[in-house]
Amino acid sequence: MKQSIKVTNLHKSYGKVKVLKGVNFKVEKGTILALLGPNGAGKTTTVRILSTLLSYDKGKVQVNGFDVKQDADKVRSVIGLTGQAAAVDELLTGRENLVMMGRLYRLTSASAKQRAEELLKDFDLVDAADRPAKTYSGGMRRRLDLAVSLIAAPPLIFLDEPTTGLDPRSRKAMWKIIENLVKEGTTILLTTQYLEEADQLADNIIVIDGGKVIAEGTAKQLKSKIGKDRLELGFASNKVFQQAKKAIKNQGVDTNDKELLLSIPVKNSSRDVRDILDKLEKEKITVDNIAIHKPTLDDVFLSVTGKEDK
């Protein structure tokens, strides 16, 4: 499969502060790569370098076959960028924002108007097309911002935390738009602070921390590295909880004394769960509630970074 992005040994410093320390990754054409990492890990710096907005110290960066340093103009001609804050003119209407951007991309007046109508329809903004953008909700502004970045139908889009601040309904609407873009052949690099978002959308995921790539793979592959499912048992009283702690000697048991919870790793969910419950029943220990917890990207993130802050 053809690569849309290839980053090799990328370094970037701000003075004495080293932000990127040899980052390597590839993005295949027609796929979504999610870039995860704690705040300050270098996600936005990476996107700004890829989109020619920021220089770098060392390494090699290619976008759609063009070198970011040597062919910056050609790179800009094949990308769209949606940053963390909506970059639309609030005094203009949605339609005017799109037409203006089309003209800036040197589309003819007729072509810019036609493209604007297509995007207004695709992004469910027809009814609000002639209202000033300042009257739009947060979700509508983000949709307009993404539409603006697509005015020239670029084959590659950078989305830097595109759903930050959106309510769950608007976030899911944006996910649908992103999924449709990929179905049409667009390549997307996505940075996000929502692990659920990466799980839902990404074909491949990269975790950056300390200026380096510390984990890479599909959501399924990354979760499998964390290990087993966990059986979570809750108890009605501290007395029963303490009895259960003594009864269960499995390796890797986590205890939550405040919530009266035991978390036990299980290899074969059905057999192991049955064995544990049988053991408790023999000891006449009553379990108040039971749940199976499967590894999530949150678990992956905490495991590889040691940080809760995304």
Describe the fold and architecture.
With 310 residues, the chain is α/β, with parallel strands linked by helices. The two termini are 31 Å apart. It is elongated and about 80 Å long. The longest helix is centred in the middle third of the chain and has 16 residues, at 168-183. The chain has two domains: 3-224, P-loop containing nucleotide triphosphate hydrolases (Rossmann fold), CATH 3.40.50.300; 228-294, Alpha-Beta Plaits (2-Layer Sandwich), CATH 3.30.70.120. Strand 7 (156-160), helix 6 and strand 8 form a beta-alpha-beta unit. Strands 6-7-8-3-9-10 form a six-stranded mixed β-sheet, with helices on both faces. A four-stranded antiparallel β-sheet has the order 2-1-4-5. A four-stranded antiparallel β-sheet has the order 12-13-11-14. It is built from eleven helices and 14 strands. 37% of the residues lie in helices and 27% in strands.
Task: Tell how many strands the DSSP assignment holds.
Answer: 14
- Side-by-side strand order of the widest sheet: 6-7-8-3-9-10
Note the gap between the termini. Answer: 31 Å
Query: For the record, what is the CATH homologous superfamily label of the largest domain?
Result: P-loop containing nucleotide triphosphate hydrolases
**Based on CA inertia axes, which overall geometry fits?**
elongated
Q: Which structural class matches the secondary elements?
A: alpha/beta
Task: Please tell me the total number of domains.
Answer: 2
CATH architecture of the largest domain: 3-Layer(aba) Sandwich
CATH class of the largest domain: Alpha Beta
> How do the helices and strands follow one another from N- to C-terminus?
EEEHEEHEHHHEHEHEEHEHEEHEH
Q: How many strands, which pairing sense, and closed or not: the largest β-sheet? A: 6 strands, mixed
Find the CATH topology of the largest domain.
Answer: Rossmann fold
